[in-house]
Design a protein that fits this description.
The complex is a heterodimer of chains A (about 375) and B (about 425). Chain A is an alpha+beta fold and about 375 residues long. Chain A is built from 12 helices and 17 strands. By secondary structure, chain B is mainly α. Chain B has a domain at about 1-210. Classes of the chains: A alpha+beta (about 375), B mainly alpha (about 425). The interface between A and B is medium-sized, with 33 and 28 residues.
Chain lengths: ~375, ~425
Amino acid sequence: MNLGVAAHTGELVIDLENVEKTYKGRIRALRGVSMRVERGAVFGLLGPNGAGKSTLVKILMTVIRASKCRGTMLGSPIGNKNALARVGYLPEHHRFPEYLTARQVLDFYGALARVGRSDRRSRAPELLDLVGLAEWTDKRVRQFSKGMRQRLGIAQALMNNPDLVLLDEPTDGVDPVGRRDIRNVLSHLRDQGKTVLLNSHLLSELEMVCDRVAIMVQGLVTSQGTINELTEGDRRFEIELADSRTPDQPFSADLLAALPPGTRPAMPAAPTSTGAPTGPAPWTGLLPTGERVSIESAMLRVWTDDPARMQPILDGLRARGQVIRAMRPIRPSLEDLFMRAVTDPATGEVLRPGAAPTRTENRP
Amino acid sequence: MITQSWAIFLDGYRELNAKKLFWFVLAISLLVVLAFAGLGITRTGITVLWWEIPVQMFSRLPPDMLTPGKFYKFVFLQFGIALWLSWIATVLALVSTASIIPDFIQGGAVELTLSKPIGRARLFLTKYLSGLLFVLLQVSLFTLASFLVIGVRGGAWEPGLFWSIPIMTLFFSYLYSVCALLGLLTRSTIAALLLTLLCWTGLFAVNSLESIFLFVRANYEERVVAVERDIQRLERDLASAPADDAPPAPPPPSSIAPDGAKGGLLSTVTDALKNSLRAPPGREDMARRLEQRKGLLPLARQDLARWTHVHEISLGVKTVLPKTQDTIELLRRTLVRTADLNAFENANDGGDDAEVDFQFRPNGSGPGTDVRVDPRRIGQRVRSLQDSRSAAWVIGTSLGFEFVVLGLACWIFCRREF
C-alpha cells in the first residue's frame, strides 16, 4: 500500500451524490452511488465484474447518460465540455485506428481534446518517451502488442495535460515490467499534483499506488476511504505458541488463564471473512481495555494495532510458561477488504457477479 | 472548434489513404481519363489512337456541332459522369466508405471520441462529412484530369467542368446519408452497404417510373395537341373547300394504317401522305374526319388527365426523395445546351423531319384512328418539362431528404448509450 503523502487540498475533484443508472431491460447498474475524490489523490475504484465501475466512469465521461445524477467534476456539472477538456480518459478495451501511427494517435486525440498544434507537437514525443514507446513513435498501431496499446492509451489520456485522469483497467494485458512502468507513471502524475481515478481488478496494483479506494458492489459504493481507514477495525496481532493442548482440547486452558484479569468471553464469534482461519469454533472475548481477543488452537489474536497493549499479554504468557514462537502484526490486504465487501454477511457466501436487476428487488 | 473539425477531416483522409480501394479507384479514374485522351474526332468519325471508326451520323451534324470541345464534353458527360462516376465509382465509393460509421461507433473506439469536449451532433456530422472526402477527392482529380484533356486535346478550356465536383459530391451525399444512418442503426458495414444499394435501386426505380410516366404524359399531351391541331386544320379546310365537286376521297387512315410493325405503319403512312398530296380529301370526308377528331378529343383529354394524375403521384413521391438522376442531369444542363442535344438527336434519328403516325385507340377498342405524333417532339417536351425543374427544386428537395435522414441519425447518435 502506498502511504506517500499526496498534496491533498480538500478540494473535491469528483463529488457525486446518488448517481443512478438503469439500462434498458431494467438492469440497475448503479443504485445511488455517492463518491468523493479529493484533488491530488490516486483513487482506486474496485469491485467485482458488473459492479458498475465502468458505468460510473462512462457517466463521468458522458459516454452514457445517468438516469439520475447530482454532482460535479472539476467544479462543473457532469457533462460540462470545459471540464471534459481538463480530463484524460483511458477506456477499458479501447481501440485506436489501426492506420494511425503512435504520433498520429496522440495528435488526433489531443486535437479532439482542444490541445493546440504546437503543444501537441511538443507533448507527443515527451509522452511516448514517458510510457516507453519512444522508438515506436512512427510505427502504425496495427503493429503494436496489447501492452503497447495500453501504454499508448495512457499517453493519449495525458495529451491534454489533464487535472484529472480516469484510467479504466490500465494494466489489462500488460506484463509485469509494463505494470511497474505504469505504476511509475502514476507516481509521476501524483508528484505533479494530478488526480487519478483508477479502475482495476488487480488489487495488488491498486494497493501499491492508491491513497484512497472505493469498493463497489452491485451498483453501490459499499465503503470508501484510505486503506488505513478501511482496515482500521481489522488490524491485529497474532501470537503463535507452541502447541501444548491435549487431543481433546480445542485450545490450552493455560492460554485463557494467561490473559489479563477482567477478560470476559464475548459471543457470538466475529465473522472470519477477514482472513482468520476456519475450523473448530474459536474462543472469543474482550480484554478489560476493550480489544477483541480470540484463541484458536495454539494461536492467540488481539485486535489492536498498538504494540503496548500486547506487552501485558506477553508477560502473562511467559509467566504461564507458554513458548512464544512468533508474534506478528497483521494488517488486512485490499483483497481481504474486497472479499469482505463481496461476501454476504448473512450467508457467508460470495455475492454473485453482475448488476442488480430491478425485478429481483421487487420480489418479497 | 476548428482544431477538432480539422482533426476529424485529417483522420478521415488518413483512413481513406489507408484503404487500397481508394488508390484502386483513383488508378482506374486516371485510366478512364487516359482512354478519354486517346479518343479524337474528325468530320467522318471517331479516332481511337491511330484508328478511325467512321460514324455516318457526323455527316448530318451541322459543322458547329462537330467541334472537338463539344465532342469531349459529350464524352465526359456520357461516359465520365453518367457511367463511370455515377455508377461504377459511386458503388466503389460506397464500398470504401460504408465502414466509416460502423467503425466509428465500434466499442472501444467511440468512448475515446465521445469523452472529448465535442458535441455529439457536431462529432457525427463532421465524421459524416469526412466520409464525403472520398468522392470529393476522386471527382476533383478526375475532373482536373478531364479538364486538362479537353483543353489540350479538344482546345476547349471549359471551367464549367468543375461543377461536376460539387454536383457529384452532392449526389453521393444523398446515398451516403442513408448509408450513415443504416451503419449507425445496424453497426454493420455489410448490412449498411447492402441496404444502401437497395435504397439506391429503389430511388432509381422511383426516378425511372416518374420519367416513364412523364413520357407517357407528354405523349398524351402531344396527342391532345395533335387532335386539336387536326380539328383546327379540318375546320379551316372545310370552310374553304368547294361544296359540290368533291374529288374521290382517299381511303380512310384506319384502313391504310393496319395494325402491325412500325415499319409497315410508316410505309402506309407515307403512302397515305402521298395520296393526300395527290388528291385532296373531299368535303364529306373532311366532315367525317372532323367529327371523328371531335369525338376523339374528350377521350384524349380524359386519358391525358388520367396519366397526368398518375405522373403527379409519382412526382409527389419523387419530390420527397433524393433526385439522383436529376442532380446529375443538372451537370448536363450546365455543360451542354439543350439545342445542341436536340440537334444531336435529330442527326442520330436520320434527320428526317417527317411526323410519324401512331395508333390512337381509345379504351383499347373501336375503330383505329391515327393521330400524328412526332416522338422527337415528345422527347423534347419531356426534356423541356425536366429542364423546367429548377436546380433549386432538385437540390433543395433532395437536401431536404438528406437533412431529415441526417437529423434522424444525429438524434439517434446523440441519444444512444455506447
